[in-house]
Structures are given as structure tokens and as C-alpha cells.
User: Fold this.
Amino acid sequence: MILVLVSAALLMGGILAWVNHVTEGPIALQAEKTLAAGIKTVMGGEKLTVVGTDTITIDDGKPHSYIIHKTQDSHKRPLGVAVESTTLGFGGDLKVLVGFDTEGNITGYTILQHAETPGLGAKADKWFQEGSKGDIIGKTPAQKPLQVKKDGGDVDAITASTITSRAFLKAVNEAYQAYAMNEKKDL
Assistant:
């Protein structure tokens, strides 16, 4: 009986390792396509070029890394940057891509990955967009970090999903900190 169980476990482990190996390439390619489309979305245009990528690490007791994608338009004028930021949401990691123009105003965002509750926290992909209840487009966290109204801020939280709203705004605020640090570094 032990021999049969060990054999079955080894066989299943081998099959899982093979499937993982076969699918890692397509998964990486899809993640690359999603990121490229996300950058175009948050920067507001199809005709842009990513001219550089930097990584900024902020250590506030626990180091966090942010990936900054610098963009320019077809006339080689700087458009701003798209920053990848990850924080802990209600159901797990919440990975957001936030676009900032050259003045530090939010141009757009897209959620790259989340594990939020379907129907509640998953609404973050649209809730904070321009024209929606929690609209953050055009705002800048420079003077005052973005916060939900419940915490003294001026952003409407997703109904019945304050934890996700706080996590989302934290990711946006941290993305802005990385953007600001990168701007200082480039001076």
C-alpha cells in the first residue's frame, strides 16, 4: 500500500511539474501583453513608447519595490510614467498600474491582479475611474494622500468594500511616492 501511494504521489508530482513547465512561457507572454495594454490604457493613448523602466525600492520597515515605466508620445515628448504598485487587499495581493502625467496628476489606472471578492472588491476596476463615484482621475496625492471619506478623505469608498478601497488608495499613494522619488533621482 505504501509503495502504491508513493508511486501515485511521484507520478502526480511529475505531471504537475511538467504542466507548470509547459504553461510558464504562455503565462509570461500573456502577463507581458496585459502590462503593455495597461500602460497604453493608463497613459491615455495607443501611440506611445516606453522609453525606460526603473525599479524603486521604498523601505518603511518592510521593503517594497515599484516598477516605473517612462513613456513618450510619437513626437518624443515625455507623457509621464506608469507605476506598478502592489499592496495587501481584502482577499490577497492587489496589483495596480497607475499612470501619472509630468505634473504628477493621475491619468488613469488599471488593476493587473487581485483576489478581491467578486461583486464587491472586484468593482475597484471601474469604481475609481473618471465619471464614477470614486473618481480619482486628474487628482494628485502630492499635497494630501488619497483617502476614503470614512478616513477623512474625499474619495467615495466602494459600497460594502471599504477594506478594498483603502488598499487600492494605498497602492495609488505608494505609486505616487515611487513616482516622486524617481523624479528627484532624475533631476
